[in-house]
Amino acid sequence: MNLRPLRTLTSISSLNKSSSGFSLKLPPLDQGRKKELAAFVKSAGLRFKSLELLNLSFIHRSVTNESGFKINNERLEFLGDAVLGVVSATLLYERFGDKSEGELAKIKSVIVSEDTLSGIARDFQIDSLLVLGRGEESSGGRTKKAILADAMEALIGALYLDSGYKAAFAFVSRFIDEEITRVLEDKSFKDYKSLLQELCQRLYHNYPVYILHKRSGPEHARLFWMQVTVADKCYGPGAGRNKKSAEQEAARMAYEDLKAGVE
Fold this sequence. Notes:
2 domains
């Protein structure tokens, strides 16, 4: 695979300046935290020039909400989500020359989903490295899929800033290749939208209709809620980080209900 590395958006030397010019100081680390992060880097097979940047990828916004500390991992999550998307799309494009855009999109939606990323985060034991506010800690934040998936994306973003696209590509490829194989073996993936459409055509000779119920969250961490109507009955809402994944969840609810009724 001969990929030209993308230009890293910023360097560590410039991380102390925001776009508006004010100083952005990364949280200092005590020796105990440095040892934890160094052990993580070693076990994950990574290299980080800045352990402070790595640490930032694990700081949840609940810390900001409780302490007033100005930065958390949300911006790194935004960046990591984009890098993850590019790497995953590249791997799928190069691996499957015989699949259509729609087929590739379906596979990609699973391998970058919250369920998949949270499982990978647990495999890397990121749950033990999270820095949470007291409220989030007491409510079981270390086990929440959304928080784990976001931290995984933030880690990818931090690695991209620290070491460049080539390092991020190599890291993401290690676990995404396995997820692609798992999806193709149908151990975790069902395209419920297609299954529902086929069932609707067979039972009612029409198509399911999807509508947006609501959207919530900030622009960079939007959550969508979709409903699907089948034969005048509404199912959902299903939630997802984009409309397609939310539609899949709503379709799953409808398909499982309708399938149970005809068996």
